[in-house]
């Protein structure tokens, strides 16, 4: 009887441990899956399973990347792209957050301005790039503006949504306590909207790199987007892949930095 009980106990222990073991297995696989993909790509390219003209092996791409690092060529393009994204991002984020807070708190303002923004938001930002180039020229100001427009709408709607989700009881308590509109603005609306604001900041960061890549295709002589386009024109596929990897890494690390900032500033949000 004791043997049966012991056997059943062992089985129960294994059943209890099984979910944790599967979780560790999946986590380990997730760490190595990108490496596995690169290895498969390398082998398929070396064996001519895939066309090396369009998909050069990762080893060739890494060699090209290293050459560009040692010659400092890639850093000039990274610097130009980061400068344009940073300036345009700030230009769009600040007014987007402030106006989102105002619209979230004021129903009359939402009724008046809401339909205007709703009509403008679906317009593809790249579609208006030719108009922006006509107004601001082919220099950096046009890149700043087109990024700012894309960032503005994402922060506007995320901030407004965060404010509107604020429990009404918080606003009623602040009003009954004699809080001014400015105090309500900064002590109730803004903290309540912060999780949504950071969601908008992350979305806007990704969109910024998409927009700047397309903008640099058309009207730039530097930047990662220009580098990708110039590599395509000369059929330098390895260099083109380097540019794609670089702009992807820039977006990833920007979003990662925003997530770290959110953990510090918004500890009450679910991460």
What does this structure look like?
With 271 residues, the chain is mainly α. 83% of the residues lie in helices and 0% in strands. It contains ten helices and no strands. It has helices at 2-46, 58-70, 73-105, 107-120, 129-136, 140-164, 168-176, 181-218, 224-233, 237-265. Helix 9 (224-233) runs antiparallel to helix 10 (237-265). The longest helix is centred in the N-terminal third of the chain and has 45 residues, at 2-46. Mean pLDDT is 85; it is low at 1-6. Keywords: Cell membrane, Membrane, Transmembrane, Transmembrane helix, Transport. It is a multi-pass membrane protein. Pfam families: BPD_transp_1 (PF00528). The chain crosses the membrane at residues 86-105, 117-138, 144-164, 209-229, 241-261. InterPro entries: MetI-like (IPR000515), MetI-like_sf (IPR035906).
List the main descriptive attributes of the protein structure presented here.
271 residues; mainly alpha; flat; disordered N terminus; MetI-like
What topology does this entry show?
Blueprint: H1 2-46, H2 58-70, H3 73-105, H4 107-120, H5 129-136, H6 140-164, H7 168-176, H8 181-218, H9 224-233, H10 237-265
